Amino acid sequence: MKLISWNVNGIRSIHKKGALVPFLEKMKPDIACFQETKAEEHQSEVDLPDYEEYWNSSKGRRGYAGTAIFTKNKPLSLIFGFPEEILGKYELKDGYGDPNEEGRLITAEFEDFFIANAYTPNAKPDLSRLTLRHTHWDPAFLAFLTHLEKRKPVVFCGDLNVAHTPEDLANPKANEGEHGFTREEREGMDRIVAAGFVDTFRLFAEGNGHYTWWSHFSNARARNVGWRIDYFFVSRELVSSVRSAKIHPDVFGSDHCPVSLEVSF
Q: How far apart are CA 220 and CA 240, in angstroms?
């Protein structure tokens, strides 16, 4: 089974650029997960008859955030955002609003696994949303993943808005403490790993130079001065089934590039 994940930074925009459909036609994924769709389903002009589409769009702010799953096989069930038992334990609202209403998480259940597609809240350049992320969102997300894993293995992907280790960005020393590379954000990733989830890309590649997002400034993408903030993780029991995990930096249309995963079920 082939899966892809891509922060498209506006699905209408990337489609108008002619970047989305050709990539999907070339890759032929069984499941495609998108983040930052910035649209509702009826606003999308993407026509892919081979795929069922499931959208979790922002309810409070139009044209903001949002996630979607396109799949060739119909899921057994869907979960939009966090379930009530998670929301009841973790207070997610802050001065910016309620991230559970921003379309940041959509999960599909299939026969052999769950796939959770996430667009983690950005801590903001002034770190004004770091507390929400560190003490509310990240713990809620991990609790949700472990809740799912009690039923069947989990694959989760998306723009997690953090470079986990110094090898995951081009200039770690210069960015120490900046949003996306704070101790608190990295700690959230450490806890995910400690819970048994595995960063699939690191099964196949070591070292730096492997990035999924680049700033628009200073010709950063051409110079490959980037960050790896887009991931595919799997439950530990699925590691032996992972066949490949790749980054596709040659695919343009967004400030992020797609990542892919192949798993045998």
A: 36
CA distances from 74 to 7, 23, 110, 144, 211 (A): 22, 22, 8, 22, 32
Q: Assign 190 to helix, strand or coil.
A: helix
List pLDDT tens digits, range 131-174: 999 999 999 999 999 999 999 999 999 999 999 999 999 999 99
Residue type, 251: V
Query: Among this protein's residues, is 96 annotated catalytic?
Result: no
Q: Are 29 and 3 in contact (CB under 8 A)?
A: yes
* Domain ranges, residue 174: 2-263
190 is annotated as an active-site residue: no
Catalytic residue among 51, 138, 159, 231: 159
pTM above 0.90, yes or no: yes
Total domains in the chain come to: 1
Alpha-carbon distance of 159 to 27, in angstroms, equals 20
Read off the CATH number of the domain in which 214 is found: 3.60.10.10
Dump pLDDT digits (tens) for 228-258. 999 999 999 999 999 999 999 999 999 999 9
